[in-house]
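Ticket closed. Logging final result for phosphoglycolate phosphatase.
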Amino acid sequence: MAGLDFSVVRALIFDLDGTLIDSKQDLIRSVNAMLAEMGREKLHEDTISGYIGHGAPKLVARALGNGAAEKEREQALRFFLAHYEAHKLESTCPYPGVAEALEELREFPMAVLTNKPVRVSRRIVEGLGLEKYFRVVYGGNSFDTKKPDPLGARKILEELGAAAGETLLVGDSEVDVQTARNAGTLAATVNYGFGTHDRVAYPADVYLERLTDLAPLLELPRR
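Final structure:
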């Protein structure tokens, strides 16, 4: 968005899936394994990709369809979470440039806010060697509400000692832009993620081809 001065940014909040890590294939395989376990037909990977970003319960519910009973959704969610926990790092890896970008940005207090369950999120961040960059990692079950509700982002702002207007939330979906707007932070969207994003309805303040675009945007070398 023209006219914004990103050099005011003093803290960063990152989404996880589709932003820092490419976890799509592991998620897709776990969803299709769940559907097979439940006696359902597998879904195309593009369909499943469109369901990612709102947390595991909603992902499972959407994959099962509207006709699923509550007991069936609960059973399916338990299977999905167990399967994903066991296979979470088979294909998942940081996107190109992510490690380099986080190293460049180490002077900023940084956090992860994802709608993925917190335990598996932290294990993935640790398994990929990224935990050293973040003060906190919060998931979709860390708070009473998930993104785009601003509760998690506001808690992170408190913990980082950062003002909303001096914080940039970086994600790949419209959920992340909505979260930024609701929390009063700036919003950046990466162009390489797999989250659903209506950019007309939910425009970000800036779009990034690679995460390494952040340091120049924040005028980091000048500091």
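Strands lie at 11-14, 21-22, 93-94, 110-113, 136-138, 167-171, 186-190, 206-208. No further action required.
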